[in-house]
Amino acid sequence: MDSFDTISPIDNRILLTTSYATESEIQGALKLAGRAQARWRQTSLKERAEICRKALSYFSDNEADISREITLQMGRPIRFGPGEIAGLQERGHYMIEIAERGLADLDFGDKAGFKRYIRREPVGLVFVLAPWNYPYLTAVNSIIPAIMAGNAVLLKHSAQTPLCADRFYQAFQSAGLPEGVFQYLQLSHAQMASLIQSPGVHYVAFTGSVEGGRKVETAASGRFIGVGLELGGKDPAYVRADADLEYSIEGLVDGAFFNSGQSCCGIERIYVADALYDRFVKGFVARVEEYVLGDPLDQATTLGPVVSVKAADAIQTQIEAAIAAGAEPCVHADRFSQPTDVGHRNYMVPQVLVNVNHDMAIMREETFGPVVGIMPVSNDQDAIRLMNDSPYGLTASLWTRNLGDAEKLGQQLQTGTVFMNRCDYLDPALVWTGVKNTGRGGTLSELGYHSLTQPKSYHLKFDING
User: If DSSP codes are grouped into helix, strand and coil, which group holds residue 258?
Assistant: First the structure.
């Protein structure tokens, strides 16, 4: 096949057909990137920052059109489109602002007759593989710091959101970025694997599934290049007995069901102190039933379709298996006008399951859909044990009034980020990372610059008579 179709989840019809890059185009892009990066690395941080800021302004200037494109491609309600653009701006500008610190020399002070320091130099060409669920938020995490560090970037976006790649290209074109410093290609999985093996690629930044991460690692085997992997999640929350009940319910409903639950750091399982459990479940279900499930192009819609019928079927299979094993659904389909009004299975009624346990996949394996399981726990130790009982470790959320206890519990959690009284959020000042099957490496923060650069030591003896 020399092309692929992007199916809109709104109506499951072909939105657009896109051609895969030819071998000649791939090799041309690599050569152009190599030449461009050799020049770009010589530019000043000030010049790089000016261009990157101009590129970010493009997204604000075109917010309405970009928001609509996001909805058409992956189905998120259009009312939330500006939020993604705002998040892109926050992360992009922050990484620009801290570039000088992130790339600063490490100076080890005086030693008679010597000058010694470590400098961070660009790795070369950074190959960014971006997902569809947050098509701009995820991609900007690597693109802006890679370019600020003096690298060239080659973007391969998801086949579900190919228009996003062109938007990045237009942004950098409008900003005056030299030709070849940023490029994108539409690639098949086989082409992607082949490109990773190319000596012209020096780092791979991948966000996606665990299965996809394994394929990327396999493709990079023997290359001795850096590979950053942000993979799956099964992120837990623990509502302690001292939590603010209403505040916790509000935050966790949003954390579980925003973007139809299609978030690597979305809340997929909740553990609630016995004393609050019944009231929590009742209040949680009531708030879930306030969602408006429908056409994502309608401003009134707050919950759209999941990305595809295939995804919906996988989610539904996991739900039905849990129910067959004894789980109890709390939300009834007659509360919502979907899916019968539209007639597509990917318009899924949000679901809350109780009477769940860790023998069920719904509590241990990634679901990536609008469903959450809730379990009672008798103490902190039970909660921590269950929160850690997962092959994933991206974020974990603690809901409590006690800061000191949250910090102590956080030390016991096997996770990349510990939240207190919030969830499903990325602070660009903090490194975004994970443990176990969630992957390795990190983006954002000053540490995000480390994987996109190569440390070089300078050991200079200037006093040869000393």
Answer: helix
